[in-house]
Design a protein that fits this description.
With 498 residues, the protein is an alpha/beta fold. The protein contains 19 helices and 14 strands. It has helices spanning 13-16, 61-70, 84-94, 107-114, 129-133, 136-140, 166-171, 180-192, 215-221, 242-256, 269-277, 291-299, 341-353, 357-364, 384-391, 402-405, 413-426, 440-461, 467-496; strands at residues 43-51, 72-80, 100-103, 151-154, 160-165, 228-231, 234-237, 283-287, 307-310, 321-322, 327-333, 372-375, 378-381, 429-430.
Length: 498
């Protein structure tokens, strides 16, 4: 058990009594580094991050708890999520930076990093137990020109799964699918065997949206690369592979047999979820952590609905799943606001402390006695609505590995299954080798060229074009700039792997 140091200066004992309990073997083996009351004056720190409906406030109880624990005075700059990218660009243009700013791996952000306005933090990470315990792959996926600049809000690297109606599967006497053929059989049965028992032909095996939200995962079942692959030292797009074409042919079969909703090309993301919540959908791609939410959505119509999840489906080339970046944004530290190495170390120390168990408990559970309780050494929410009101303005402030660093909790079986599956998935996860590579042509034309492939993909599934026309679309993509992207990615890949 870690020895806990309590913070009482600004807050009552009742507020902070929630930060006790045994560690679950989080990122640091050292005791939590709560500040010494006799230490230096609080460090002035400004933080810019986005929020949804509730605006973060500088005088909130939560912020005061964070300030007291980290020995800082924090000025929060809240940005609506809808304008976060725009606000970042305005901040860069003005040069009026906060100490640290939350960002995502997007072209404007990468360009700003390349311009030299943020600190490179890689050489300092070894001095901070929590920051250095973050998986190297997460940092690798945030590198710009081979260097680390961002402090990530960590999430699992391989979270994707097929969420399905487990009660339907059990009713029809089918096993959870382990192969592509069994996966097809499940979807077919969900479509044709009246799994909801209403005597009507009104269920879909797999629901799809206009973005083909399920497709990448199913392409992975067939062995396609994760966006990009490497063949003979050259980078090639996934859609150029035979495995990808096989996945398209499989999808066309699902469409022809009406296993997929026939209006998927005009089904918005919002309506995709509505199809599920009307209890007419057998399966859809989701992330593991929302399985319980999907189950409760289906139970609004069918109280007996149960959800299962399956991620590792064996295909003709084995079993794999695509890896993600492993983060939900990251904080960059400004050189103009944080002028010296001494100040940089204080900012890094703040973020390192923000990952201690005490702070992770706040972001995960809230306040003991108010939003959660400890029972038999485990935390359990007692007021989830209160927790949401308390913490939703500050969700994007959290960094590191909350699940691993916080006190273990009492979990619903689907929540525990999500944790187990994430670990299992990661063992066979395939990374995107081009994730952090530079291609000027891709920056300039990538989105435009992508449309060629996306349009052809939908038309192939609908049966409007054949394999020859699909290949013609790939050739057009190459001619219009795709080949140049391939060449630039290949050069960058080889340079980074010397």
């Amino acid at each position: 058990m870690k020895k806990k140091t309590k913070v009482f200066t600004l807050l009552s004992t009742a507020v902070l009594v929630g930060v006790v309990g045994c560690s679950n073997g989080g990122s640091s083996a050292t005791p939590a580094k709560a500040p010494d009351p006799s230490s230096a004056e609080p460090f002035e720190l400004s933080l810019q991050f986005h929020h949804e409906s509730q605006v973060p406030e500088n005088d909130s109880r939560i912020l005061k708890m964070i300030e007291e624990y980290t020995n800082t005075n924090i000025n929060v700059i809240g940005v609506p999520s809808s304008s976060n990218t725009e606000k970042f660009s305005v901040t860069v243009a003005s040069g009026n930076f906060p100490s640290a700013i939350k960002a995502f791996y997007e072209v404007p952000v990468v360009n700003a990093i390349k311009s030299g306005v943020f600190w490179e933090i890689g050489p300092y990470l070894k001095d901070y137990p929590n920051l250095s315990a973050i998986k190297p792959q997460v940092y690798d996926n945030l590198k710009v020109q081979g260097k680390i600049y961002g402090i990530p809000s960590v999430r699992d690297l391989a979270r994707n799964t097929i969420t399905y109606r487990k009660d339907w599967l059990e009713k029809l006497g089918l096993p959870e699918p382990a192969t592509v053929d069994e996966f097809y059989n499940m979807l077919k049965a969900f479509t044709t065997q009246d799994p909801d028992g209403n005597g009507k032909d009104d269920t879909y095996g797999l629901i799809e949206s206009n973005s083909l939200a399920n497709f990448d995962m199913i392409a992975g079942f067939f062995g396609a690369p994760n966006q990009w692959g490497v063949e003979d030292g050259k980078l090639i797009p996934s859609f150029q592979t035979e495995a990808y074409l096989e996945a398209l042919q499989f999808y066309r079969k699902l469409f022809d047999e009406k296993i997929i909703n026939q209006d998927f090309p005009i089904t918005s993301y919002e309506n995709w979820f509505k199809l599920w919540d009307t209890a007419k959908a057998g399966a859809m791609k989701q992330v593991t952590t929302v399985a319980l939410h999907r189950e409760r959505g289906a139970q609004k119509i069918d109280p007996d609905a149960k959800v299962g999840m399956v991620s590792l489906i064996e295909g003709p080339r084995g079993t794999q799943i695509f890896s993600e970046s492993g983060s939900n944004g990251f904080f960059l530290i400004s050189k103009s606001a944080v002028k010296t190495e001494e100040e940089l170390k204080k900012v890094l120390d703040f973020f390192d402390k923000l990952m201690d168990e005490e702070m992770s408990n706040i972001f995960t559970w809230g306040i003991e006695g108010e939003t959660y309780a400890i029972k038999d050494g485990k935390a359990e929410h007692t007021d989830k609505e209160g927790f949401s009101r308390l913490m939703s303005p500050y969700t994007q402030l959290s960094v590191g590995m909350l699940t691993e660093n916080a006190t273990p909790g009492v979990l619903h079986p689907l929540e525990q299954l999500a944790l187990d599956m994430n670990k299992e998935n990661e063992a066979v996860a395939v990374a995107n080798p081009a994730l952090t590579l530079d291609s000027e042509t891709n920056t300039e034309k990538g989105a435009q060229l992508k449309k060629i492939i996306e349009d052809a993909r939908v038309r192939f599934i609908l049966g409007e074009i054949d394999e020859a026309a699909w290949q013609a679309a790939i050739d057009q993509w190459k001619k219009d700039g795709g080949q140049q992207i391939m060449d630039e990615f290949t050069a960058a890949y080889n340079a980074s792997n010397k």
